[in-house]
Amino acid sequence: MNPGDNIDSGEIARFSAMAGDWWDRRGEFAALHDINPVRLAYVRDRADLAGSRVLDVGCGGGLLSEALAACGARVTGIDMAEASLAVARSHMRTSGLDIDYRRITAEAHSIETPGHYDMAVCMELLEHVPRPASIIAACARLVRPGGSVFFATVNRTWLSWLLVIMAAEYIMGIVRKGTHEYRKLVTPDELKKWGADAGLRLENMSGLRYIPFGGHAALCRSTRMNYLMHFIR
């Protein structure tokens, strides 16, 4: 990794260590399995997936990539954790889907293929990189004019600190300890500004309510914890 890369080596190591659990419905990524249908519906309701070129930035083990591909999208998934990509490729073969998985950063990919995609999705990644604004700008470069960019992340509020970090990680053990750092969480105002700076127009912002016990997830008005944003280039 180059010193200038927008990568946290600790985060890469953490997700690499958990790679074997990506498709375990009751494992480390159970919460992502619970919210994945909501994330997919948010994208599908706002953009036409069938036949579209879609980039999944920070694809991990391919949970969202496969869901997008099953809807008819031509999906490319990028991530910097090779162990996660290996799991994604293996599971793709058992699913009978065709997804192009690559180990590359969004920034490097945006130099190689600017304007190539109809849409980019970047879910639960901004809070895990040193410079989230750089990821946002790269996503903007990667989509064609008029294309969509979707983000999902965790707000930096006392409520998210209490429930997403303290309760979920340290009390109930739903998520591995250290998965989230409060200082790295992104507020909606920050995300809106960085999007505008990158030439993106905000179309929608929605909160996401998640109740771990029972796996209930749904869109809501409150953005005090998890939220999603849809931009147009």
TrEMBL record:
PANTHER family noted in UniProt: METHYLTRANSFERASE (PTHR43464), UBIQUINONE BIOSYNTHESIS O-METHYLTRANSFERASE, MITOCHONDRIAL (PTHR43464:SF19)
An individual GO BP term: methylation
Keywords: Methyltransferase, S-adenosyl-L-methionine, Transferase, Ubiquinone, Ubiquinone biosynthesis
Gene: ubiG
Record has S-adenosyl-L-methionine as a keyword: yes
Protein name, as recorded: Ubiquinone biosynthesis O-methyltransferase
Pfam families in the cross-refs: Methyltransf_23
Entries under NCBIfam families matching the protein: UbiG
CDD domains for the chain: AdoMet_MTases (cd02440)
Stretch forming the signal peptide: none
Domain of life the protein comes from: Bacteria
Gene Ontology MF: a single term: 3-demethylubiquinol 3-O-methyltransferase activity
Organism (species): Desulfosarcina alkanivorans
